[in-house]
């Protein structure tokens, strides 16, 4: 049975014309004549049985159907192009994995370790793109994703195979200078913090809030049995990485997963203000399409789970 797929040339010409809303600019991009672009688009319209462009005195504009079709096919054309380039560059060996990753986890946990994967599998190239929301693998060009969410969100992700990575437990962190500004008596002769702060003491510090989790400080104080009347107030930032920078510059105390702060805690730029963690409702997961049987994904999953285990042991020491 013949697939209902139009010619690749007509799709490429349509995509260029739709991007520029001009046959002239499409012709210049593809090194074709304007009449060649027009013929290819006409062939595509005949194949589909509908109009993709309306002709105006200023050129062309997409019809509703044309706009919908353009949005759907451009990622697939890009995927074909990238797959072709990957095959050529790897000469049929190895390949490329396109991963969607939550931003702070990517920059603070995964990227500092990715050189180890490259050393073991130099034939596999990893492309990272930040993504904070679930998506359908059938509609996206990612091969897999590292996503943070609740168990309910993960369970409702259709057609996905899931590997648990780690919990997202958070701890209060800030600069030591901020604590010593409010509590100079807590500075030991060594210059370090001589004890953990109580909930009442932390309540006197400026709080740094996460935009996407407005009640996180309220929950932490409730775990500590303290009712903070202003637990929802304070400067707000979207990402853990932004909160970490603000905390490092003495702007307040923030709730951030300790596992994402290895460098700051090691250097002393941040200190853990209280040892009491808030067990997060979210966790990190590696997710990929259930029908995806890629050997590249299998190798990455095995390496990733090993790295998680190593980091857990290091973290507990």
TrEMBL record:
Organism: Acinetobacter bereziniae (Acinetobacter genomosp. 10)
Family: Belongs to the LysR transcriptional regulatory family.
Source taxonomy: Bacteria, Pseudomonadati, Pseudomonadota, Gammaproteobacteria, Moraxellales
Entries under SUPFAM superfamilies matching the protein: Periplasmic binding protein-like II (SSF53850), Winged helix' DNA-binding domain (SSF46785)
A Pfam cross-reference name: LysR_substrate
InterPro entries, A to Z: LysR-type_TF_proteobact-type, LysR_HTH_N, LysR_subst-bd, WH-like_DNA-bd_sf, WH_DNA-bd_sf
GO molecular function: DNA-binding transcription factor activity; sequence-specific DNA binding
GO biological process: DNA-templated transcription
Ranges of residues in domain HTH lysR-type: 6-63
Signal peptide: none
PANTHER family reported in the protein's UniProt record: GLYCINE CLEAVAGE SYSTEM TRANSCRIPTIONAL ACTIVATOR (PTHR30537:SF26), HTH-TYPE TRANSCRIPTIONAL REGULATOR (PTHR30537)
Keyword terms: DNA-binding, Transcription, Transcription regulation
Stated name of the protein: Glycine cleavage system transcriptional activator
Name of encoding gene: gcvA_3
């Amino acid at each position: 049975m013949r697939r209902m797929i139009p010619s690749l040339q007509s799709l490429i010409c349509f995509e260029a014309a739709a991007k520029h809303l001009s046959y002239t600019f499409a012709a210049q991009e593809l090194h074709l004549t304007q009449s060649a672009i027009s013929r290819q688009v006409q062939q595509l319209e005949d194949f589909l049985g509908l109009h993709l462009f309306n002709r105006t005195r200023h050129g062309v504009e997409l019809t509703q159907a044309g706009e919908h079709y353009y949005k759907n096919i451009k990622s697939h054309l890009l995927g074909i192009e990238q797959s072709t380039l990957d095959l050529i560059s790897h000469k049929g060996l190895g390949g490329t994995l396109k991963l969607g990753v939550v931003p702070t986890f990517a920059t603070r946990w995964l990227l500092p370790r990715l050189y180890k994967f490259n050393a073991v599998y130099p034939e596999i190239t990893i492309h990272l793109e930040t993504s904070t929301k679930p998506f359908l693998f059938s509609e996206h060009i990612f091969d897999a994703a590292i996503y943070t969410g609740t168990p309910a969100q993960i369970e409702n992700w259709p057609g996905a195979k899931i590997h648990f990575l780690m919990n997202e437990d958070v701890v209060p962190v800030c600069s030591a200078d901020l604590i010593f500004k409010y509590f100079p008596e807590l500075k030991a002769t060594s210059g370090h913090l001589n004890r953990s702060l109580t909930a009442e003491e932390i309540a006197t510090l400026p709080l740094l809030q996460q935009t996407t989790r407005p009640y996180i400080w309220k929950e932490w104080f409730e775990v500590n049995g303290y009712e903070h009347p202003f637990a929802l107030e304070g400067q707000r930032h979207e990402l853990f990485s932004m909160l970490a920078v603000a905390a490092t510059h003495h702007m307040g105390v923030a709730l951030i997963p300790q596992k994402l702060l290895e460098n700051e805690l090691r250097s002393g730029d941040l200190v853990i203000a209280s040892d009491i963690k808030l067990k997060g409702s979210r966790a990190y997961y590696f997710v990929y399409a259930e029908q995806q049987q890629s050997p590249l994904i299998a190798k990455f999953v095995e390496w990733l789970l090993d790295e998680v285990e190593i980091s857990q042991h290091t973290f507990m020491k």
